[in-house]
Automatic annotation (TrEMBL):
Residues 202-326 form the Peptidase M20 dimerisation domain. Belongs to the peptidase M20A family. GO terms for molecular function: hydrolase activity; metal ion binding. Pfam families: M20_dimer, Peptidase_M20. The lineage of its organism: Bacteria, Pseudomonadati, Pseudomonadota, Alphaproteobacteria, Rhodobacterales. PANTHER family: ACETYLORNITHINE DEACETYLASE, ARGE_DAPE-RELATED DEACYLASE. Its cofactor is Co(2+); Zn(2+). Keywords: Cobalt, Hydrolase, Metal-binding, Zinc. Gene3D superfamilies: 3.30.70.360, Zn peptidases. This is Succinyl-diaminopimelate desuccinylase. It comes from the Bacteria. It comes from Thalassovita litoralis.
Length: 435
């Protein structure tokens, strides 16, 4: 007579048995085009998740983030939070995934919202970032409940808005409302695509700002009678190239940031616009001949845990002051758009150690510890929710995020679901009550 299977083996078998369901769920999520901006179909995907999770015995809350950036009657910022209470007192494990995806862009060879399965991969915008992770967390939770119905504590799964544009209509709003308070939730896993054998401890900081240079409008045939704001901005760019970019390249971190290039401080010129607004797509006329009196540039500065936000801002101001010292009539404004301080969970934190053991048991290898080059919703759980026991862990290859022909591997989703399920066993299962 064969020995009875362990709870872990039964969980693994249960997840394998749900392979087709996992593929279908991932495709269904991809086929709801939740583009942000502007924030399309948020209510539709939340209703889809409500139906799915209510069928698995979860209590559902739908929360609209009224008054947050982008929220309107046309594009309301909806979030869904599902909670399944266990049979005994215990801690709560929360899986948080964002529901929004970025613009499709060009270069696709498959339907970006087709959710097509090909060669063991599910393709589509958001497949990797992060609807595959959302699907894996749902399947992991449902499989765990099936093999361990008498678990202790609670499981929560959320689908939240606007992570791609800062998360203010999603996790930030929910954190302000107490949904991530440490007395309600004790462990958080965000299934972002950091590779299935990696635990992401946190992220670098970010400072977004708009720099505007000013000039004086005049006829384009007599530019000497005006003052070109675009040329002033050109001088700013030149000074950045000469002094700021080389200085940033010398700043290095001890944070385990991936990829290697992100271990230094970085600055991205996000956009530049000067002069007249571009015409509508169907306008075939020529622009009028004018000297531009305004030029705006948005900068995206990513900084390290060893840096101070005041110093980050001061470096940009130093560039502008240098330009002002050598250019007549140089006038400018700087407007802060967004700031996030770096965050990093300690390796000794319970959720880190639990998921590390689950990776080793599932894949037979030690977990890698990494830090994300860009921010994600851990920032709000940490700073607003005051919950430090939070990581990102999920299926998918980070380099595929926001790229054409984005995909997530089915086997990777299954392995990640098994890791998440094993984490639930360690944190919530009561062996005496297991089925």
């Amino acid at each position: 007579m064969a020995a009875p299977k362990s709870l872990e083996q039964r969980l693994s078998d249960e997840i394998d048995a749900r392979r087709e369901d996992l593929i279908q769920l991932t495709g269904d999520l991809i086929r709801i085009p939740t583009l942000n901006p502007p924030g399309e179909n948020y209510r539709e995907i939340c209703e889809f998740l409500r139906t799915r999770l209510a069928g698995a015995g979860f209590e559902i809350e739908m929360v609209r983030a009224y008054g947050t950036p982008g929220d309107s009657e046309k594009y309301p910022r909806w979030n869904v939070i599902a909670r399944r209470e266990g049979k005994h007192a215990g801690e709560c494990v929360h899986f948080n995934s964002h529901i929004d995806v970025v613009d499709v862009g060009k270069g696709w060879t498959v339907d970006p919202f087709g959710g097509e399965l090909k060669d063991g991969k599910v393709y589509g915008r958001g497949a990797c970032d992060m609807k595959g992770g959302l699907a894996a967390s749902i399947v992991a939770a449902e499989a765990f409940i099936a093999v361990c119905p008498d678990f202790a504590g609670a499981i929560e799964i959320s689908g939240t808005a606007d992570e791609e544009s800062g998360g203010f209509g999603g996790v930030a709003y929910l954190a302000e409302k107490g949904f991530f308070a440490p007395e309600r939730v004790q462990h958080v896993i965000i299934p972002e695509p950091l590779n299935k054998d990696r635990i992401c401890l946190g992220h670098r900081g970010v400072w977004w700002a708009e720099i505007e240079t000013y000039g004086e409008i005049a006829h384009g045939s007599m530019p000497f009678l005006g003052d070109c704001a675009v040329r002033h901005m050109g001088a700013v760019l030149e000074e950045m190239e000469d002094s700021l970019f080389p200085a940033l390249a010398l700043k290095r971190t001890d944070m385990p940031v991936v990829p290697e290039g992100a271990k230094q401080s970085t600055l991205n010129i996000n956009s530049i616009h000067g002069g007249q607004a571009e015409g509508d797509a169907d306008f075939t006329g020529l622009p009028s001949p004018c000297v531009p009196d305004s030029c705006r540039m948005i900068i995206d500065r990513r900084f390290l845990i060893e840096e101070n936000i005041d110093d980050v801002q001061a470096e940009v101001m130093e560039v502008l002051n240098k330009v002002a010292g050598r250019r007549d009539k140089f006038r400018y404004d700087v407007t802060e758009l967004h700031r996030v301080l770096p965050t990093m969970t300690e390796k000794s934190a319970p959720i880190v150690q639990t998921v590390a053991r689950a990776i080793a048991e599932t894949m037979g290898k030690d977990a890698q510890y990494v830090v994300s080059p860009g921010t994600y919703d851990q920032k709000h759980i940490d700073r607003i929710g005051k919950l430090k026991n939070c990581i990102a862990y999920g299926p998918g290859i980070l380099d595929l995020a926001h790229k054409p022909d984005e995909y997530v591997g089915v086997d990777d989703m299954l392995d990640s679901a098994k890791v998440m399920g094993r984490a639930l066993i360690e944190l919530l299962a009561s062996p005496k009550k297991a089925a």
